[in-house]
């Protein structure tokens, strides 16, 4: 009986491994999560739900909300989409209180169990803390090993929990000073929201890899969240982008902008503009839709298709780029592909036939649009290439004479370590194939990518400091910071000189234009304070 039981367990583990391998083969890039926090609202949990709904594209594996009810934190979380987790209205109704933070998760570090669903919450003898994190820590493995050697006991496998342990072990006197010390210890990409009985705290890494914005409700209450699209949904007004190295403190007196370090630079992840952020979001004054249109126009200029008849964008993240390509070339922008918005999120067995069927469940070609046409297929990126091949094949089966693939971003050659689920080169088509080999594998008639210089110009970030203000390491190998625990994985690229790492910043970056910062006056202690009773900020 024991042998049979062992065999069953081994067979089950093998099925899980196969399912995970298949999930990798059919999925696209995934960003870690979206976060949302509000202070001083009777409907804080409900408002957080609406905000998270606008951020659902940033994570679909789990969701959670923690509310603060008269100094007591209460948590509700679960696996699945936000609407699945809170399908029972009683779960939201249980989250009474005047402040809350929430999280939608896609795992980049840690397993997929419910123990990793955020916000994480801890109960100390003298206080409670809840934490939500967007990003990925590059020194998490080292920090965790050191903490465990000192007796720390972790409840999850997520790197997000590390900050809670660092806060608790700090010898500083005040909570803010403990938090600052912890923030100076972690490395990588992070946007943190922490909720305590006494305040809401938000912090962004010294490079500003992930987007993070402050908004304000008409009644004066402050919001901190991942994208401006979440502010629009709840009727909040954009106040400012959280700046690298800042620590935001929100309590009953208003909002105070402090810093935990003045060693900062600006390195916004270019993939936010290319793929992750919603098109109606604005990051550092740049509207995502307009940036993507410029990328589409730029790839048309760099990689023309002389005999093209129509332009077809891959729904949904590539539609803006397709519009830019069509507008620049004067070609019709047609709906040659339709996406099924209601497809169930299922795991597909690891066979080519069933992987292709999974793509066909999500997308279908419009035969009467593409038949007998030379099609320019515009997509935002190629990661593994499997989906691109299936789409090209689908269009040709629908009658397209030729399919010319144009990618509105550079070739994805190197891993990401700051919050995108792509930490090895093994699965990257661009890292392991020439352009002609890639074209052949996806079965396209031609293939063209955007150059890195054109990408930077298309985003057009209002910045005149050192560098471009963007992270383009996945395309050019120029990492804006050390990657610590991950450095060994790029040893071969370091040896041949195709990648390099900048040191951590030693001075403070200076943006050319951050309109919402113009009239902010520093107080004597170096902080900025915004009153909660009046609408603050300066119109761009």
Account of the protein in words:
The chain is of the alpha+beta class and 540 residues long. Helix content is 31%, strand content 23%. It contains 19 helices and 27 strands. The protein has a seven-stranded antiparallel β-sheet. Helix 19 (491-496) links the parallel strand 25 and strand 26. Helix 10 (288-302) crosses helix 11 (319-329). The longest helix has 25 residues, at 2-26. The termini are far apart. 48% of the residues are buried. The model is unreliable at 11-28, 344-350 and 534-540 (pLDDT under 50).
Distance between the termini: 71 Å
Structural class label: alpha+beta
- Strand fraction equals 15-25%
Any idea what the shape is? globular
Q: Helical proportion?
A: 25-40%
Counting DSSP E segments of at least 2 residues, the number of strands comes to 27
Biggest β-sheet, characterized?
7 strands, antiparallel
Features:
single chain, alpha+beta, seven-stranded antiparallel beta sheet, 19 helices, 27 strands, globular, disordered C terminus
Summarize the SSE layout with pairings.
Layout (H helix, E strand, L loop, with lengths): L1 H25 L6 E7 L4 H11 L7 E8 L2 E8 L2 H4 L3 H5 L5 E7 L14 E4 L4 E10 L2 H10 L11 H9 L5 H9 L4 E8 L4 E5 L8 E4 L5 E4 L2 H7 L2 E5 L4 E6 L2 E6 L8 E2 H7 L5 E2 L2 E2 H15 L7 E4 L5 H11 L3 E2 L2 E3 L12 H11 E3 L1 H4 L3 E6 L6 H12 L4 E6 L21 H4 L2 H8 L3 E4 L2 H8 L10 E2 L1 H4 L1 E2 L11 H6 L3 E2 L26 E4 L9
Parallel strand pairs: 14-24, 17-18, 17-21, 21-22, 22-23, 25-26
Antiparallel strand pairs: 1-4, 1-10, 2-3, 2-4, 5-6, 6-7, 7-8, 8-12, 9-10, 9-11, 12-13, 13-27, 15-16, 19-20
Helix pairs in contact: 2-8, 6-7, 10-11, 10-17
């Amino acid at each position: 009986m024991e042998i049979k039981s062992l065999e069953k367990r081994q067979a089950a583990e093998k099925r899980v491994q196969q399912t995970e391998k298949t999930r990798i083969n059919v999925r696209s890039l995934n960003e870690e999560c979206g976060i949302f926090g509000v202070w001083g609202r009777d409907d804080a949990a409900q408002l957080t739900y609406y905000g998270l709904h606008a951020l659902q594209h940033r994570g679909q594996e789990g969701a959670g909300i923690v509310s603060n009810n008269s100094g007591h934190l209460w948590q509700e979380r679960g696996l699945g989409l936000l609407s699945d987790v809170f399908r029972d209205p009683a779960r939201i109704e249980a989250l009474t209180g005047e402040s809350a933070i929430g999280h939608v998760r896609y795992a980049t570090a840690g397993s997929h169990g419910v123990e990793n669903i955020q916000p994480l919450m801890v109960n100390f003898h003298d206080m409670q803390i809840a934490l939500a994190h967007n990003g990925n820590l590059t020194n998490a493995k080292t920090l965790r090993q050191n903490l465990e050697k000192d007796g720390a006991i972790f409840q999850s496998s997520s790197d997000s929990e590390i900050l809670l342990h660092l806060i608790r072990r700090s010898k500083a006197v005040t909570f803010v000073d403990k938090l600052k010390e912890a923030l100076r210890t972690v490395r990588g990409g992070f946007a943190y929201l922490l909720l305590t009985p006494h305040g809401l705290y938000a912090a962004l890494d010294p490079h500003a890899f992930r987007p993070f914005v402050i908004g304000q409700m008409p009644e004066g209450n402050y919001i901190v969240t991942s994208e401006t699209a979440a502010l629009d949904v709840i009727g909040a007004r954009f106040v400012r982008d959280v700046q690298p190295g800042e620590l935001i403190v929100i309590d009953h007196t208003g909002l105070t902008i402090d810093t935990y370090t003045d060693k900062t630079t600006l390195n916004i992840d270019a993939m936010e503009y290319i793929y992750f952020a919603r098109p109606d979001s604005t990051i550092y004054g740049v509207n995502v839709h307009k940036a993507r249109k410029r990328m589409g126009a730029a790839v048309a200029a760099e990689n023309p298709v002389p005999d093209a008849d129509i332009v077809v964008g891959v729904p949904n993240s590539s539609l803006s780029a397709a519009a830019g390509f069509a507008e620049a070339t004067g070609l019709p922008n047609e709906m040659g592909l339709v996406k099924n918005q209601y497809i169930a999120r299922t795991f597909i067995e690891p066979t080519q036939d069933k992987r292709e069927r999974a793509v066909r469940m999500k997308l279908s070609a419009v035969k009467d649009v593409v038949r007998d046409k030379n099609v320019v297929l515009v997509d935002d990126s190629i990661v593994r290439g499997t989906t691109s091949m299936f789409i090209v094949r689908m269009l040709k089966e629908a009658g397209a004479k030729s399919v010319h693939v144009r990618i509105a971003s550079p070739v994805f050659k190197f891993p990401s370590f700051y919050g995108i689920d792509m930490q090895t080169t093994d699965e990257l088509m661009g890292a392991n194939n020439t352009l002609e080999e890639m074209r052949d594998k996806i079965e396209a008639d031609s293939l063209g990518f955007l150059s890195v210089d054109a990408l930077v110009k298309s985003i057009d970030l209002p910045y005149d400091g050192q560098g471009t203000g963007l992270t383009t390491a996945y395309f050019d190998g120029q990492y804006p910071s050390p990657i610590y625990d991950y450095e060994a994985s790029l040893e071969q690229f370091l040896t041949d000189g195709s990648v390099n790492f900048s040191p951590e910043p030693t001075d403070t970056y200076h943006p050319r234009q951050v309109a919402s910062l113009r009239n902010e006056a520093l107080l004597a202690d170096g902080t900025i304070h915004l009153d909660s009773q009046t609408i603050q900020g300066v119109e761009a």
